[in-house]
Amino acid sequence: MIAKTKLADLVSFLALCGKVVGPVPLGHGQFKFAEVRSLAEMALDYIPTILPPKKYFMPQYETLLRYDGADGQQMQAVVEVEELVLFGVHTCDLAGIQCLNVVFSDRPRDLHYMIRKNHITLIGLECSDYCDSYASCAMLRNHLPKGGYDLFFSELSDGYFVDIKTQKGEQLVEESGLFEPVSDAAREQLQELRRAKKQIFRSEVPIRYQDIPRLFDETFDSDVWTRIGEKCLSCGNCTNVCPTCYCFDVMDEPDLDLTRGRRIRVWDSCQHETFAKVAGDESFREQRSDRKRHRFNRKFRYPMKRYKRMFCTGCGRCSRSCMAKIDLKETLGALMEERG
Ligand code: SF4
Ligand code: SF4
């Protein structure tokens, strides 16, 4: 347990040890993860930030290596890494990070990602209130903590119940000297919080979790894809803000002397027409409807086969940020209606 009155001291302690990142308000009901020095800068009752914490695990723009062709072909791998504490991460975003962990630790392992991940301490924070109508975390079973953190905080009446998951978390608790043993009353309060959540967080679309992949299997030729394809602008917002979208492009950026330079990795999007274009100008997903269908299947159906999990956390960011108002829950509903 940690008393509410000691939370500010904890953040100050973490900030003395290194960089702390937490949810900060941007105005107009929007939030972002940014560096903080104190608790006062954060908004712990936030709805999902515009960009998920994936930006710290897989930066939008990253140098992979530097090369120098002046003396033969010399290459030096670069790993851009910094010690970081991510504070106040909700269960949906913890689930998103777990998806990225699964992908980047699959063979061939992505060492840039793996090294960076080991330098990030994750402190989760439980939502006790529902965020907004775009979210579907209960449908995807991500409204309760399922691991993937070092410490996890659940707010009770006068303190936070703290679940310690790793040795790193244990060390932090010991070194800060701010925590106290948990009481039976606090355990009972936590159970009460979880019982209350069952009523507040309900499956938002009337479909069982285990039936979702089959819905996409059975609606591959649905007109719903044509209809949302006509609305989609192919801007790629939905993939940029998605905590589990990890597609990237790799390219060389030569210096002006054209001898030295660096190889970079940047986020890419399956919603761009060029993404699936190959030699001879052939495109596998020429139509916007093809690309939208692909994205939905990449969230709910294909990863079940390879990773035995869905790659949608229910955070609602794609629907919240889509200029064409393409809504994930509405799309699921339309597919269900059409299938009958
Ligand atoms: S954010 Fe909306 S308009 Fe943009 S690519 Fe995604 S679905 Fe299409
Ligand atoms: S598909 Fe949409 S709701 Fe699902 S994880 Fe990505 S951004 Fe969140």
UniProtKB/TrEMBL annotation:
GO molecular function annotations of the record: iron-sulfur cluster binding; metal ion binding
Domain named 4Fe-4S ferredoxin-type: residues: 223-253, 301-331
Key words of the record: Iron, Iron-sulfur, Metal-binding
Keyword Zinc attributed: no
One Pfam family from the record: Fer4_22
UniProt entry tagged with the keyword Iron: yes
SUPFAM superfamilies the record matches: alpha-helical ferredoxin
Annotated protein name in UniProt: Ni/Fe hydrogenase subunit beta
Species this protein is from: Geothermobacter hydrogeniphilus
Taxonomic classification: Bacteria, Pseudomonadati, Thermodesulfobacteriota, Desulfuromonadia, Desulfuromonadales
